[in-house]
Amino acid sequence: MSPTTRAMLGFAADWPLLKKIQTIDSFLGNDYFYESGIMYAMWRWKGDELRPYCDEDFAGQLPFVRPGMTAAGQMDNENSTYTSGIFLWSQCLRYMVTREPDALEFAAKAFRSIDLVFKLTEATPERGFLCKPYQWQASRESSPDQQYTVMMALWLYRDLCDKQTRERADVILVEIADWWMRNDYKLAFFGSAAGSWLMGNIPQYGPMFALMAHLAYRVTNDEKYLRECRRILELCGPWMLIYDDIRLRRRAGDTSYYPWPKHLHGREYDPGRRPFLMSDWETRAPMWFVAGPAEYFMQTDLVNRHLMRHVLGRIYRYMQFGLRDDLLQLYWEQVDLERDLWRPLSLYYTEETIKNPLFGWHFMGYVSEVCNQDGVFRLVDACLIAHEHAYEFAPGAFSLAKRILATLDADRMRTFVDPDGQQLLPPDQYLKHTICSELPDISIAYWRARLNRIPLE
Description:
Layout: H1 17-31, E1 44-46, E2 49-51, H2 71-77, H3 80-98, H4 101-122, H5 144-157, H6 163-182, E3 186-187, E4 195-196, H7 197-200, H8 202-220, H9 223-236, H10 242-251, E5 277-280, H11 288-297, H12 305-318, E6 333-336, E7 341-343, H13 351-355, E8 371-372, H14 374-389, H15 397-407, E9 416-417, H16 440-451
Antiparallel strand pairs: 1-2, 3-4, 5-6, 6-7, 8-9
């Protein structure tokens, strides 16, 4: 176990922005790697204690733990692959701006973390599968976001590293694409049967997979990857976002896709609006996975540039759903798909919902106004992309990014924030003492702005 780290314990909202970013970068680069070289995902941060989790931390708590794993092993590694990707991405941008040697040093450490995760399955039939390395070992668990940040980061890093490292980065980029193509973009997760992330989630993940194929094409010049990219872009159509997709499905009579749950009957902001409502929890943050591909494909002749500008404006709008006046973002919300608006959902639980929660996770057995920082951190970067490429369709994007960064303090660097201390039930208190695995997203946004001469300070 690493010693207690105090690098960020004095982190304050009134610090200059550069000092905040330097503190984040230094902490992640110096302290956030396991002895094997793989990055951590989340640490315990309670009071003056900031360190990796141990199983004793969950006494009296009910975390979500997969069979055969420990609570600490799962928390430590839930997003290790993803976090490695966004940290590498951030340090590449930082080096491009500052040429500071430790930016390359941190980038090399993040690349090694990615390479170590890749090696977990490299000599198996699952070569190219970037897993969530629970307990520092290969697992069957992953999610598309883990692949997204890695491929975006490697694409930048290959132009900054030495020839041997670049060749290795290219191998990983191509093998990731091969794995997904070979498996028809299907992935089993949370103990479920294999589902199709692409075919069933085009609005969230289609652009990402198209980009993945195009990067493989640029590395290899193999036309099969370009054909695959074009095929997926055709499936993406007008690049609808998830709310657009659900709206169309409802119109066609499909009420099984993101239905309004029966246990939330009576919790509608207006009971008469029930046919148009969806219960929303983790759909806004993944819209960031569309922003990057939109910006990338704007530089090609594969899509309509003007369409991409509209897409970026809509991403900026919808990623703000659930954003409170204090710039905390609700984890749960209700979305009126016809009126194109959101409203909060208040605390609601019953003996039955607690007894049989979604995924078997106690936290999913009730709906509260707890806030989650994942989407907020990604929103800052989406604001800057929209400000640069779709200014007229993203009113206020630049000022919103600045306001969010100005509020960043120690409390807002946790995964969950309980704004009044009443939103998390006793078995779920550990969530508000967990450092956010999305932390490098803030660094990406800052160094992106500096690189593009956007004055955040």
